[in-house]
């Protein structure tokens, strides 16, 4: 994975040079994780940047803000325009966009409500999240000892920064054990998700994925892959999945804005299927990457061109 800074960051309505887009050390977000955010991909198609699923990402950003009692002082249309402006200002044709809504400079104390709500938009050049070879060869993962959030402890449907402490424990443990990523179970012991990806399991030609109540973030790319699977005639079932499904599956793969569609070749050192990318995963990848690469028609209107 490569990541490089760009020239400008959008902060509270202004495009500022990268080095000037700073916050104070008393920012509530720094102490208590009081942020909501999104990750959005921008793909180059015919030498022009196209934002992937802009509408869905901004809609989820505002939903997360509503859940977290954060009143965003911009409209969804203004945020979409600011994202486009940030891409244009940095003269990038492909990148990763991070809209971030956070509680700024404030007095110390857990209650976030007295603090101001600030908004930033960051654009960075970013390669394959799990490595350039992962898309074809797949990755080795392990089931984490860390569980995902239990219901009524924290809202899994919101993309809240503080909740990613749990994801960090999953990712650190995976790295220490020599895996590319970890898969967490929910409080009931069913498959939930990776540290930053949704999980799909294929068995006997049927595609399975954990339901929203398995403490997953309902991923934008997850929704796209379900749509593409239906387009291709596959049956997709959202239902609780026991851990052992990972071991007897024909195919397993991750989806996510950063991970895109990444095959999993082993779980806990047990090969998945033949130990390499399976045919259904490959077919979904071909369709997905065809759309974001401009070779397949964007029939669902997922791509928003950035006009110079």
Keyphrases for this structure?
308 residues; alpha+beta; D-amino Acid Aminotransferase, Chain A, domain 1; D-amino Acid Aminotransferase, Chain A, domain 2; 9-stranded antiparallel beta sheet; 9-stranded mixed beta sheet; 8 helices; 30% strand
Describe the structure.
The protein is an alpha+beta fold and 308 residues long. It folds into 2 domains: 3-126, D-amino Acid Aminotransferase, Chain A, domain 1; 134-292, D-amino Acid Aminotransferase, Chain A, domain 2, CATH 3.20.10. It is built from 8 helices and 18 strands. The strands form 2 sheets. Strands 1, 2, 3, 4, 5, 6, 7, 8 and 18 form a 9-stranded antiparallel sheet that branches. Strand 13, helix 6 and strand 14 form a beta-alpha-beta unit. The mean pLDDT is 96.
Mean pLDDT: 96
End-to-end separation: 28 Å
How can the largest sheet be summarized? Answer: 9 strands, antiparallel
CATH architecture grouping of the largest domain: Alpha-Beta Barrel
What top-tier CATH class of the largest domain fits best?
Answer: Alpha Beta
Please provide the count of β strands.
18
The CATH superfamily of the largest domain is known as: D-amino Acid Aminotransferase, subunit A, domain 2
CATH topology name of the largest domain, in short, is D-amino Acid Aminotransferase, Chain A, domain 2
Low-pLDDT parts are none
Rg measurement, Å: 19 Å
How do the helices and strands follow one another from N- to C-terminus?
EEEHEEEHHEEHEHEEEEHEHEEEHE
Query: What's the number of domains?
Result: 2
Helix % is: 25-40%
Instruction: Work out the oligomeric state of the chains in this entry.
Output: single chain
Structural category? alpha+beta
Q: How much beta, percentage-wise?
A: 25-35%
Principal-axes geometry comes out as globular
How many helices does DSSP assign? 8
């Amino acid at each position: 994975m490569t990541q490089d800074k760009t020239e400008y960051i959008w902060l509270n309505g202004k495009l500022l040079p990268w080095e000037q887009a700073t916050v104070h050390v008393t920012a509530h977000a720094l102490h208590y994780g009081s942020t909501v955010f999104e990750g959005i991909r921008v793909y180059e198609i015919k030498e022009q940047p196209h934002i992937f699923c802009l509408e869905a990402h901004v809609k989820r950003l505002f939903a997360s803000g509503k859940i977290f009692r954060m009143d965003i002082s911009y409209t969804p249309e203004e945020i979409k325009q600011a994202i486009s402006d940030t891409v244009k200002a940095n003269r990038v044709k492909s990148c990763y966009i991070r809209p971030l809504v956070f509680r700024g400079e404030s007095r110390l104390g857990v209650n976030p409500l007295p603090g101001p709500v600030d908004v930033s938009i960051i654009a960075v050049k970013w390669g394959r999240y799990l490595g350039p070879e992962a898309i074809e060869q797949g990755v080795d993962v392990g089931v984490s000892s860390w569980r995902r959030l239990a219901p009524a402890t924290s809202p899994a449907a919101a993309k809240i920064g503080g909740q990613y402490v749990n994801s960090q424990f999953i990712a650190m443990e995976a790295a220490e054990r020599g895996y590319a990523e970890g898969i967490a179970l929910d409080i009931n012991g069913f498959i939930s998700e990776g540290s930053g990806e949704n999980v799909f399991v294929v068995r006997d030609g049927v595609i399975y994925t954990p339901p929203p109540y398995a403490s997953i973030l309902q991923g934008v790319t997850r929704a796209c892959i379900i749509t593409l699977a239906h387009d291709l005639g596959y049956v997709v079932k959202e239902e609780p999945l026991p851990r052992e499904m990972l071991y007897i599956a024909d195919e397993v793969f991750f989806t996510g804005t950063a991970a895109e569609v990444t095959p999993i070749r082993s779980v806990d050192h047990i090969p998945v299927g033949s130990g390499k990318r399976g045919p259904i995963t490959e077919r979904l990848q071909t369709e997905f990457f065809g759309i974001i690469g401009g070779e397949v028609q964007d029939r669902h209107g997922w791509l928003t061109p950035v006009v110079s």
